[in-house]
Structure formats: structure tokens, C-alpha cells
Amino acid sequence: MSIETYISNLKAKPVGVRKQIAFWSSFGITLVILMFWVASVTGVTGSATTAVAQAVDKAGSPAQSLVASVGSLFGDIKDLFFAPKKITFSTVEVRPGN
Fold it and tell me: How many CB atoms lie within 10 A of CB 71?
């Protein structure tokens, strides 16, 4: 089925069905963009970069690499929302100003 045939079939459907298809299509595209954005944000940190490098080293084919990176993405998203990183300082040095 070509895209022209699909669009002509879509034009024949009721308005409610067309709105549902438009909503879910835009939702899916937005979700894909969000996943790429989150992956790029988590790739900035050093630990995420080494995790991705290790996953690529372990993967033998492009399909295995894709599966490994998606798994890593879900782990990063889980850590982002449910396990915030805690920063602790062991020593504090106070110096008088000029």
C-alpha cells in the first residue's frame, strides 16, 4: 500500500477516527524524539559513556547493539526518575576573602 492510497483511505474515514490517528501518530513521534533526547542527555556523563562503550564492545551485530542500547536507555531513565545520584563532600575548606 502506497502512502497516497493510505491518505486517500484516511480521508474517507470519519472525523473522529482521523483525529485519533493524528493523535496517536503525533504521540508516537514525540515519544521517539523524547527517547533520543534522554539518550543524548544521559550520554553526557562519564559513567553513561563508559556503559555504552561496554555495551557496544559486548554486542556482536548491529541488532544486538541496538537491543543493548535500548536496555541501557531504560536503565538510565529508571535511574533518572527513581534513584537520584547523591553527592557527598568529605572535606570543606574555608578561606578568608580579600
Answer: 11
